[in-house]
Amino acid sequence: MTDGTARDHGGDIDRAAQVFGGTDWIDLSTGINRRPWPVPAMSAHALTALPTRADEAGLIRAAARRYGAPESQILPLAGASAAIQLLPHVIAGRRASVLSPTYNEHASSLRAAGWDVAETTDPESLTGELAVVVNPNNPDGRSLTPDLIARIADRIGHLVVDESFADARPDLSVAAVRPANVTVLRSFGKFWGLAGLRLGFAISEPGLLARLAERAGPWSVSGPAIQAGTAALMDDAWNDAAVTWLAEASLHLDQIVSAAGWQPQGGTHLFRLYRTPDAQSARDRLARAGIWSRIFPWHPRWVRLGIPADRDEFDRLRAALTAAG
């Protein structure tokens, strides 16, 4: 189980540099695509003007096309994380359950908002006025079929399905076939490799989205995020090429790491999870080679690695793993 009060995250590369020194780091501690969509130059409008309703409408149209959901059921936000923080305040109830272990912000945000949270490893045990599943899951890649999602929703007051890592697995998504009491969260920054834009989407019934929008306030998504997000979501060729690359690269990563004696435990196309003799020692050995990985305070042997960007990064990882052995 996760510690619902802890909010540790990957991406803390500044801490890695402070502890281990160096400037030439490969940050594999997140599930952010290291081969990002190529952002064109920003327009003067995106940089200097407040976003207009027309700007946001264009982004929503692009998201509706990508995710298969009606435009009226899509709300852009400053990352899926914004929705995670706000949802506990706009859904009525006191008892929540979270399918765990998973991304720790869900349980933490619920508890901070006053919910009683039960964590369970069994999807059939989810109960309460609100339940949360991450699909596919972070960090182990556990996946639930749309049919199972629908069955869970039948017995829950409201079900939040976090699909932040579903871009490469559209077969898992319920965005286009969402039961009425389900809210789907989509992250833009992870798959498209542009986490700094802080863009994500909540897909739900219009009344709940209106309450979320009121909590988020005006101009919750920046002009550059709207411009880049709209164009990227329409780029089918890049999307298809990224899915192919990530599928192949994640298998290649498993091969390299398995050869070093670590045991694959699952993952997604954007990160892989491995069992090691000692996670802390494994992370520190990689860090001394300038490679930052993700470990978990609640599991002493798990190490998660993002997908390297190219052959040079794979070679550097292979060398570090060989030296670590």
Automatic annotation (TrEMBL):
Pfam families (alphabetical): Aminotran_1_2 (PF00155)
Catalysed reactions, semicolon-separated: O-phospho-L-threonine + H(+) = (R)-1-aminopropan-2-yl phosphate + CO2
Q: Pathway listed for it?
A: Cofactor biosynthesis; adenosylcobalamin biosynthesis
**Matches recorded under InterPro entries:** Aminotransferase_I/II_large, CobD, NHTrfase_class1_PyrdxlP-BS, PyrdxlP-dep_Trfase, PyrdxlP-dep_Trfase_major, PyrdxlP-dep_Trfase_small
Q: Which UniProt keywords apply?
A: Cobalamin biosynthesis, Lyase, Pyridoxal phosphate
The GO molecular function terms of this record are: threonine-phosphate decarboxylase activity
Segments forming domain Aminotransferase class I/classII large: 57-313
Which superkingdom, per the lineage? Answer: Bacteria
Give the enzyme's EC designation.
4.1.1.81
The answer, when asked if Transport is one of the entry's keywords, is no
Which prosthetic group or cofactor does it need?
A: pyridoxal 5'-phosphate
| Stretches assigned to coiled coil | none
Q: Sum up the protein's function in the record's words.
A: Decarboxylates L-threonine-O-3-phosphate to yield (R)-1-amino-2-propanol O-2-phosphate, the precursor for the linkage between the nucleotide loop and the corrin ring in cobalamin.
Q: What is this protein called?
A: threonine-phosphate decarboxylase
Q: Which organism is it from?
A: Paracoccus broussonetiae
